[in-house]
Amino acid sequence: MKTDKALKSTRTSQADQVAKAIEDAKHSQTNKSSVIAQQIFDGDNYVGISFIVDKNLRYKHFHLDSPLRFVIDFYNAGIYGTNNLKGFSNQLISKIKVGHPGKNTSRVVLNLNAPSNSESDLVNDESGSYINFKLSKNNSD
Question: Of 12, 59, 1, 57, which Cα lies nearest the Cα of 38?
């Protein structure tokens, strides 16, 4: 697992690549926030997903059953850079899908192989704003 310092360095080094995508997104999506899928981490007992976001982004996340899923909705936002999410799978996640269930909503759906616990963290620092999601297998089964 990368340390906080390594993650910050990775984020900073990717800032130039992402800055253009954010600007393009802002120009093409008037009055919409920008969400950029930055990284996915496959840890020993967890999966982490990091998104670069505008500071005023509204979002929610929730779990669904039958089938098991973890859903992230971003409101009034365009989502970009999702190719690194598509095709990802491991012992916890069978598939990741990205879509738009409504006119002003972008959605990321993680199909799960097992019940999971989730955490989220919104980080605002000198390199930008990030939302980090962490999923781990629910050990109460």
Answer: 12
Which neighbouring-strand residues pair with 91?
Answer: none
Domain that holds residue 78: 4-137
- Domains identified in the chain, total number: 1
Task: Tell me the per-residue pLDDT of 83-109, one tens digit each, with 9 for 90 and over.
Answer: 888 889 898 999 999 999 988 899 999
Q: Facing residues of 128 across strands?
A: 125
Q: Which residues pair with 58 in a beta bridge?
A: 75
The SS3 call for residue 33 is strand
Question: 5 or 75: which carries more pLDDT confidence?
Answer: 75
Place of tokens 């012992």: 91
Q: Among 135, 115, 131, 133, which residue's Cα sits nearest to residue 123?
A: 131
The secondary element (H helix, E strand) that includes residue 1 is none
**What is the token pair recorded at 77?**
């936002």
Handedness of CA 112, 137, 62, 71 (dihedral sign): negative
The pTM of the full predicted model, rounded to 2 decimals, is: 0.77
Q: Are 97 and 82 in contact (CB under 8 A)?
A: no
Q: CATH number, domain at 56?
A: 2.60.40.3500
